[in-house]
Amino acid sequence: MTVDSTAGLSRAEAEVAARSARRPPRRRPGIRGREAAAGWLFTAPVIVLIVLFLVIPILMAIWVSLSNWTGIGSPFSSNVKFVGTRNYRFLLTQDGLSRQNLMQSLRNNFYYVLFVVPLQTALALFLAVIVNRRRLAGRGFFRTAFYFPSVTSSVAIVIVFLFVFGGSGVVNALISKLGATGPDWFSQQAGIFHLGLDKIGVHKAPGVLANHAFLGQSWWEWLSGPSLAMLVLIILAVWTTAGTFMLMFLAALQGISADVEEAAVVDGATSWQRFWRVTLPMLRPTLFLVLTLGLISTWQTFDAQFILGATNPTVVTPAYLSYQTSFNNQQWGQGAAISFILFFIIIVLAAFQRWVLRDRDEAREKRMIRKQRRAAAAGRSS
Amino acid sequence: MSQTVEPTTATTPATPPSRTRRPYKVGESRLFVKVATYLALILAATVYIFPFLIEIGTAFKTDADATANPLNPIPHTWTTAAFHQLAQVDFPLWFANSAIVAICVTAGRVFFDSLAGYALARMRFRGRSALFSALVAVLAVPGVVLLIPKFLVLNQLHMYDTYSGMIIPLIGDAAGVFIMKQFFESIPLSVEEAAHIDGAGTFRTFWSVVLPMARPSLITLTILSFQGSWNELAHFIVSRQNPRLNTLTSGVATLVSGQLGKGNQYPLKLAAALLMTIPVAVLFFVFQRYIMRSSEGAVKE
Fold it and tell me: How far apart, in whole angstroms, are the C-alpha atoms of residue A65 and residue A82?
């Protein structure tokens, strides 16, 4: 969604900026003391804002997640008690409604990520490759058309999708033209894997899956797949964000020198081979960036859930659940705890992805250098 | 997928048969690729544009027409009833609130981000690199986990349900600092030195010499900030509950989620969606190259 994508860009810019920051400082005459004062003065407003609305809030939320605050009065008043990890225990280890809701939201969001991230990356890459063709009529037009949803409000887009997939909407009208009846997209709660199995005659959970549970949900439930309502939100996310990522791929494609492609042509590579063996490996850094940004933003999806979440529990995500738990149910401790659980999930997954997609050659090279250094050091010390 | 290389060999009759075969096939498949490419593009463009046509058309339909002919974007009978109805609910107020918030956030971000970006790019002071690393760390914090924390601090500061509570937290924006820092690093140092020699102070140099040179980046930052704050939803859900303070996003979202059960009223909802899209769409089409460039620049080495 739009909000996520701008945040994503900024993170990318940060990486670029971080690289340029390592340049040595320039020599320049001037009065050091005054420059230091001016430096802090110039950065002070931003520092104050970030401390006040990012650092302090996080610290406060850590306290609230460990307390029994119910939203009445200040969370620091004397009648708010420290309860240790009770909120986290309710959410993670104790059987009950809290854990059930959290696990369902994690399952919903897991399928959302599982479908959105690969699909949006593939679509973005596909669009970038075809828009990048050198002799293409209306290049600018197509680029604008694919990018435009990225800048529009997520609320407006959700409304359009509500109509397009609504009971009497565009998609169902198309389906009935084909002689079938479209489903009731937004109120369906069964997972699509379950629906698919139902079609081929599996109406009931196999005993193994139904009788074994993990974190309070049976394996049969874990393997449900996204509901139809969530499927619509998956399509929505892929449709809106592909344009942003397409631009990133386009920039990278334009950075690939024509010589490389020509060399591949001369070597007799077909265009299919050229794409897989030449273009794609060169896009690796961008691919990594897009996958990471996609993974981070899909775990944060909130806007569509705010509009639909109250009517269908199968679209609820942890981000929305933490809002609902705090603001609607006044269980602020649990709500804050859900935020931190989500925070933890995002950090761990981003690190895991970094590790999976690491450049193996580079890693091997680094290991070699380290080994040599160690050997050299050992040689010196003995 | 280069098309530029050796298309002529395919039609050269003088080449021996063993060599003509392959290039000829390539030429044939090239035509096929071309047709397939355009078909794919047109199909994709339809999928991308049609929903917006539906949005515009349905906004001018009657409820019955919208339900009966969802596929046809052209109304049977044109009506502006949906827009009149929107004027009855607090829509104009929401629009004004969105405008106030977006303009204040944009102005604040552009000013403070360029100040901080300039300091980080040009001034040498103790703790600068630590400060920079801290800002990088800030960017890594997923925004959505801050919703409840932000409410807590606004409540504590008695800024909940006020314009300042809706505006000020959005101004602190590490991303904009980076955009500006990168830009300031790209302009030559000599200009500022000349200003210094002429006796201009640090702020004076920044304000009347450096900032005017930063116009392209300032435009980019302005548009990104305006678009971001205009489309922001989550922050306005946790920073206020007074209906008089609804922005377009929070107001329309509440309207839609509240009425889901009762009737369809699609022309009304789509008219609201259309009206809230227009300001950003206008900005987008006017300043397109600045927006596109900023996201392309994100991956440029």
Answer: 9
